[in-house]
């Protein structure tokens, strides 16, 4: 038996991580089915990723996810994005149109863009990512996965055109324009439109 409070435990959050992984899996299987997404394939890909890449904290690598190649910057960030987007379905919406126009503002590496394209293959997506490093990965993911009708833009959206400070964050989903936030990294100059 594992002792949750054992002082010999290498990682104090081991049980929390196990508990969270079980919760993620239950969320995936208890949620509504998503057109074009096999829950079993997604789970297998995610588990293989966890075994091979996540524990090694790989960077600048490729994951096979739902028969697509996903380039990523950090395995920890990718794990977070997969569970939020595909397991918890935080961007899910129902459209009465087969080809909705979708704005992905802060597209990161394009995982939500891929999610939208799987749900609505005929959608038209405008994906905006101001961080040059993430934009490079986004563009590569869109191109290599041959996502049609996806247009990518390397700038932030704002009230006025110009140049501004963008604060990347250690949390992969919280970069901010013009404002320092907890976890922010040094600012980078980005184009605003």
How would you characterize this protein structure?
This protein is an alpha/beta fold and 193 residues long. The protein has one domain: Rossmann fold (3-Layer(aba) Sandwich), CATH 3.40.50. The chain is built from five helices and eight strands. The protein has helices spanning 14-30, 39-52, 75-87, 111-119, 132-144; strands spanning 59-65, 68-74, 101-105, 124-128, 150-153, 162-167, 176-177, 188-192. The protein has a three-stranded parallel β-sheet with strand order 3-4-5, covered by helices on one side. The protein has a three-stranded antiparallel β-sheet with strand order 7-6-8, with no helix packed on it. Strands 1-2 form a two-stranded antiparallel sheet. Residues 1-12 have low confidence and may be disordered.
């Amino acid at each position: 038996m594992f002792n949750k409070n054992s002082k010999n435990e290498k990682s104090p959050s081991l049980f929390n991580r196990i508990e969270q992984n079980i919760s993620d899996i239950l969320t995936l299987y208890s949620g509504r089915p998503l057109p074009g997404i096999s829950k079993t394939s997604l789970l297998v890909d995610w588990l293989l990723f966890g075994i091979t890449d996540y524990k090694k904290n790989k960077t600048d690598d490729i994951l096979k996810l739902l028969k697509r190649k996903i380039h990523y910057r950090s395995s920890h960030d990718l794990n977070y994005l997969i569970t939020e987007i595909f397991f918890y379905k935080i961007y899910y919406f129902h459209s009465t149109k087969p080809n909705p126009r979708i704005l992905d503002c802060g597209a990161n590496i394009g995982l939500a863009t891929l999610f939208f394209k799987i749900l609505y293959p005929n959608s038209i997506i405008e994906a905006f990512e101001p961080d040059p490093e993430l934009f490079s990965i986004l563009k590569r993911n869109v191109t290599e996965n041959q996502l049609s009708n996806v247009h990518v833009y390397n700038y932030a959206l704002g009230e006025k055109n110009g140049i501004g400070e963008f604060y990347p964050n250690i949390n992969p989903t919280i970069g901010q324009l013009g404002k320092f936030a907890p976890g922010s990294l040094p600012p980078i100059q980005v184009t605003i439109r």
